Amino acid sequence: MHTIFVCSDAVGETANTVVQATIRQFNASQVQVRRYGLIRTEDEVRSIVEEAFRVNGFIAYTLVLPELREMMRQEAIRVNVNAIDIMGPMMQAFIDTFKDSPKRKVGLLYQLDEEYYQRVEAVEFTVNSDDGKDPSAMKQAHMVLIGPSRTSKTPLSIYLAHKGYKVANYPLVPEVRPPSILYELDPKKLIGLTMNPDYLVRIRTERLKAVGLPFGAKYATGERVEEELAFAMKLYQELGCSIIDVSGKAIEETAGLILADR
C-alpha cells in the first residue's frame, strides 16, 4: 500500500483536491491518503515527515505560515522524503509579479463571508430542485441539467452548487411530456446530458444490482436505453441547448466543460 500525506495549517482541501486529481491519472487502487489539518507546530511537521519516511510515502502540503513551510522543506531534505509545496510557488509568483505581500493568515478560503452564504443558498436550492421536484424553480436557476436516468444529473448538480450555482435538473422519460417551461428558458441556461449506450447500460445494470432488482429489467436493456437517448437528443435539438457526452468523465471534468461556457 502506497501512502500520500496531505498536510495543511487549514483543512487541507486544496492539497487534497490536487492529490486526488493526480491519483486518477494512475492505476492507483493501492494508494491511501492521510490528511493532517490545522498544523500549528514544528513538532507536528517533524512527526509527519518521519512517518512519511517510515512508510516510504510522500507529502503534499499547503502551509501558509513561512516558518512551518520552511520547517517542512528542511525536514523533508533531512530524511530524504519527497515533499511537494502546492501553495508556496504560487504565492511567490504573486509576490514577484505584483509586488504584493501575502496576509499569511490560515483558513481564509473558509471564512464565513458573503460568498460562503451564497454557496449554502445554492446548495439548498439545488437539493430542492433535484429530479424535477419543482419545475417552476427552473426560472430562478443559473442552469438546468436535463437527461435520461443515470447520466450524472444529481451529482453534477450538487458539485456545481458547491461552486455557488443554483442548479435544477429534470429526468427525461419518453412517456412523460417535458414541462413547457423548458421551452421558455434561454437555451444557454440548458445543458443536455447524453452517454454512450453501452456505458449507460452497464451503469443501469449496476444500479439494479445495488437495489436488488432483476438484471433483466427493461430499465437496463439496450433497446430501452437507445429509445431514451434518442428521445433526449430530439428534445435537445428542439430546445437548441448545449449537449455534453458524459461517458467516462469525472464529475469535475463535466463541470469544467459546463463552466467554460459561462
From TrEMBL:
It holds the Pfam family Kinase-PPPase. Its EC number is 2.7.11.32, 2.7.4.27. Transmembrane segments: none annotated. Keywords: Kinase, Nucleotide-binding, Serine/threonine-protein kinase, Transferase. ADP binds at residues 147-154. It comes from the Bacteria. One of its GO terms (molecular function) is kinase activity. InterPro entries: Kinase-pyrophosphorylase, PPDK_reg. The keyword Endoplasmic reticulum does not apply. It is an enzyme of class 2 (transferase). It catalyses: N(tele)-phospho-L-histidyl/O-phospho-L-threonyl-[pyruvate, phosphate dikinase] + phosphate + H(+) = N(tele)-phospho-L-histidyl/L-threonyl-[pyruvate, phosphate dikinase] + diphosphate; N(tele)-phospho-L-histidyl/L-threonyl-[pyruvate, phosphate dikinase] + ADP = N(tele)-phospho-L-histidyl/O-phospho-L-threonyl-[pyruvate, phosphate dikinase] + AMP + H(+). NCBIfam families: PRK05339.1 (NF003742). HAMAP family: PDRP. Belongs to the pyruvate, phosphate/water dikinase regulatory protein family. PDRP subfamily. Bifunctional serine/threonine kinase and phosphorylase involved in the regulation of the pyruvate, phosphate dikinase (PPDK) by catalyzing its phosphorylation/dephosphorylation. This is Putative pyruvate, phosphate dikinase regulatory protein. It comes from Paenibacillus alba. The lineage of its organism: Bacteria, Bacillati, Bacillota, Bacilli, Bacillales.
